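Q: Got a minute? One more chain.
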Amino acid sequence: MAAAVTVPARRGRLRIADRVYAGLAQQAVREALAEVWAERGLRGAAPKARVLVVGGKARITLHLEFPYPADLAALSHTCRDAVAVQVARLTGTPVSEVALQVEKLVTGGAQ
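A: Always. Here it is, folded:
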């Protein structure tokens, strides 16, 4: 007896919770900044992320602490790129925006 084949569009839907997107974004930032923080004696707080998925695209807001002194523009680009790539790659959801809110600059440690 042959199994019935269901058309992909009729198999159902997959909904990824916003907290899953947020977790992936936070992990991407931690990995992107790991080397920068490893060079210092102090470490900033863990990143936080808020995610809103509208129209099949993710909008992500990150709340971060950056080491200082550092090239803040380069760190920002690194974080945005890492989050956009990892979230899209792991979920299949395109990322339309990654906004950064730097909560604190952490001084001290190796320079």
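A: The helical segments are 18-38, 72-91.
Q: Perfect, thanks.
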